[in-house]
Amino acid sequence: MAAIAMRKYCNKFCKNYNSPLVRFHIDILTVPRSLIFHARFLLLGEIQMAEVENNPEKEMITQFHMNAAAGNAAKLSTMLNYSTSLINKMDEKGWTALMYASRNGHFEVTQLLLEKGCDTSISNKSGQTAVDIAEFWGHKHIADLLANPKSDVRSKMWCDGPEENENYFGRTLLNRLSVKRTNSNWIKNKQIQPTTVYIVFSNLSPLVISAKCEDSGKTGIHLCRLQYEDVEQLLVKPEVTSVFLGAELQSETCAKFALGSALAEDDGLIAWFAVNAEFIAPENFRVKYPDCCFLQPLILYLLNFSKEEAGVVAQARSVLAWHSRYKFCPTCGGSTEVQDSGYKKICLQKNCPSLQGIHNTCYPRVDPVVMMLVIHPDGNNCLLGRQKRFPPGMFSCLAGFIEPGETIEDAVRREVAEETAVKVGNVQYVSSQPWPMPSSLMIGCQAIAVTTEIIVDQKEIVDARWFSRQQITEILTHENHPISIPPQQTIAHTLIKKWLVKNAHL
Ligand SMILES: [Zn+2]
Predict the structure, then answer these.
(1) Ligand 1 mean position to 242 CA, how many Å?
(2) Is 337 part of any domain?
(3) 279 C-alpha to ligand 1 centroid (Å)
(4) What is the domain count for the chain?
(5) For residue 357, how far is its CA from the centre of ligand 1 (angstroms)?
(6) Confidence of residue 213 (pLDDT cuts 50, 70, 90)
(7) Residue 331 covered by a domain
(8) Ligand 1 center to residue 65 CA distance, Å?
(9) I need a surface site. Which of 114, 407, 463, 498 has the fewest CB within 10 A?
C-alpha cells in the first residue's frame, strides 16, 4: 500500500511541476518520511536502504537509486543531466543505481547507465557486482548486457570515434584476477585443486586435441585441459615455468553467491595455469589424452581455435615466450627469480640497478606495431603490399614496429613512406589486436594518402598496389581468385572490410 501511495504522490508532483530539478526535490521533500521509507522498502524488494536524512546530497542519491529500481529511465536521465556525478554513487550498503536496475531487471535503465559511462566493476559491501546481482535474480538479458557491454552499447561521449571491435586473440574466457597473483597461499591452494585447469606448452606450442563441434559437426582444435595430477611431476622441475592466467568468468558468479567470500579456502573459482615444459614429448600425456599433440607448425593452426580459447593462447604464449627469452636480468646479466605467479622477474644480484625504482625489464614485454590501411585521396582505392614471406598472391595492409619516442601517427607516416614512398596525412586509430608471435600489439589505423605514386623499397616489401573497391570485393567473393588478403581472424582483414563497408554507398 505504501508503494502505491508513493507512486500516487510522485505522479501528482510530476504532473504539477515541470521543472525536473524542482520535481525530484519536491518528490523527496514533500512525501511523508515514513511513506518514503516503506515505499522504498517495497519498491526495491528486500533491499533495505538507509532512511533519508536531512542531507540534500544523500536525498538526491536515494532518489536516483529509487528511480533506477523503479525502471524510470526518463527521470534518471534528467537527474544525470543535472548531476553526472550521481552515476556511480553508492548507498550505505555499497549499492549503485546500476545494481538496483540490475536487481529489478530494467534493461532500458541499465542501457542508459552504461551509455552514460557507469562503472560496472564496482562491488557492493557483499562483494557483488551488478552482473552478479543480475545473474542471481535470473535477469539473463541484463547480465549479458553487463558482461559484454562494448558490443551492445556505445557511449554517447565517443560518438565521433571508432566503434570498438572484438578481434581474434582479443576475447577470452578468463578474468585475469591480477590481484591474486601476489597471494601465494591462494595460488598454492588453487594449484592443487582438482578443478584447476592446466594448459601445457612445449617450445611455445600448445598441447591440443581435435574434437567435433556438436552444433556444426566441424572438427576444431581445442586446448587440452589438464589437471594437477597430469602435471604434478612437471611442476617440481626447476626449468619449468608456471603462469597463473586467471579464473573462468563463468565460475565467478557462482563462487560469490555459493560461499559469500572470494577469500574462502575453496571459493569455487576455476583457476587456469599455463606451463611451459621445453621440448616435452606429447607421449607424456597420451595415456589419459590419446589424441593430444603439440601444434606444429604453429602458425598454420594458431587461427583455428575458438575465439575464447584464442585469447587464452595469446595471453599464455606471450608470457611464456617472455620467460623463455629473458632468462637472465637484462640490466646486469644476473640470475632472476619469478614472482607474481609468473608476471614479474626480479634480479637476485643485490646491487643491481633494476631493484631500484620501476623497470620495464621486470615485466612481460609488449611490442607495439602499427598496421594501416592507406586510403587513396579519391576514397575508392586502398594501398596493399606484399612481403616476401607471404603466401603466393597474398597482399595485406602495410605494417611496422613503432620506434622509441614515436607517436602512433608518426609511425604510420614513416612506415608507409619508407616502404612505398606514398605520403600520408590524416591518421585515425581503428582497433587493436594482441598478436602472440611472440608478443606484439597490432594497432590498426586508417590513413589518408596525400600522394599516390608508389616506389616499392624492395627490402621490407616486394610489391605494393592500389586496389579499387571493386577489386577487393572480387578478391573477397571469388574463392579461386589469384590474389588474396589475410584471413578474417586478422586485423588487416578487419581494416579492409571496415573500409569496404563504410564506403559501400559511394
Ligand atoms: Zn640485475
Answers:
(1) 22
(2) no
(3) 28
(4) 3
(5) 13
(6) low
(7) no
(8) 53
(9) 407
Per-residue model confidence as pLDDT tens digits over 72-92:
888 888 888 888 889 999 998
- 447 and 402 in a single domain? The answer is yes
Task: Please report, for the domain that includes residue 483, its CATH number.
Answer: 3.90.79.10
Q: How far is the CA of 405 from the centre of ligand 1 (A)?
A: 25
Would the pTM count as exceeding 0.85?
A: no
Q: In this structure, what CATH number is given to the domain that contains residue 179?
A: 3.90.79
Which cell goes with 400?
611496422
> What is the 3-class SS of 380-407, one letter each residue?
CEEEEEECCCCCCCECECEEEECCCCCC
Looking at the structure, do residues 148 and 266 belong to the same domain, yes or no? no
The whole domain housing 405 covers 367-501
State in Å: Cα 183 to ligand 1 middle: 25
403 and 298 belong to one structural domain: no
Kindly give the distance from the C-alpha atom of residue 436 to the centroid of ligand 1, in angstroms, as a whole number. 26
Cα–Cα distance, 463 to 224 (Å, whole number): 41
Rounded to the nearest whole angstrom, what is the distance from the C-alpha of residue 367 to the centroid of ligand 1?
22
The model's pLDDT over 430-477, given as tens digits with 9 standing for 90+, comes to 999 999 999 999 999 999 999 999 999 998 899 999 999 999 999 999
CA distance readout (Å), 33 to 7, 39, 50, 54, 61? 14, 10, 12, 11, 16
Whether residue 69 lies inside any domain: the answer is: yes
Whether 123 and 58 map to the same domain: the answer is: yes
- Ligand 1 centre from 304 Cα, in Å? 40
- How far, rounded to the nearest angstrom, does the alpha carbon of residue 203 sit from its chain's CA centroid? 27
The answer to whether position 108 is within a domain reads yes
